[in-house]
UniProtKB/TrEMBL annotation:
It comes from Malus baccata (Siberian crab apple). Residues 23-91 form the dsRNA binding domain. This is dsRNA binding domain-containing protein. InterPro entries: DSRM_2. The keyword RNA-binding applies.
Amino acid sequence: METEGAATVTMRNNTDTPKAIIHKKFGSTACYKVEEVHEPPQNGCPQLAIMQKGPCLYRCTLQLPEVTVISGTFKKKKDAEQSAAELALEKVCLFSFL
């Protein structure tokens, strides 16, 4: 007894992240440097003897052979890296080649 099953075809979603595109185009020449940016507490009282820590944010500097870009500040390191990669792609105009 032979059964016919529906052939399942899975197509890979070809939406690479900006960081993945940078890695494909530049490889190990792309250098990400993530730094912590400490914000002062917004509800802090100047007379308070206990030091309060503000939120820790991250900023990423991406160095490529042609350009260096600095991202904005983000709560997650990954978001800062993706933002820097996106800015670099805009500067290098790689979006037009995708």
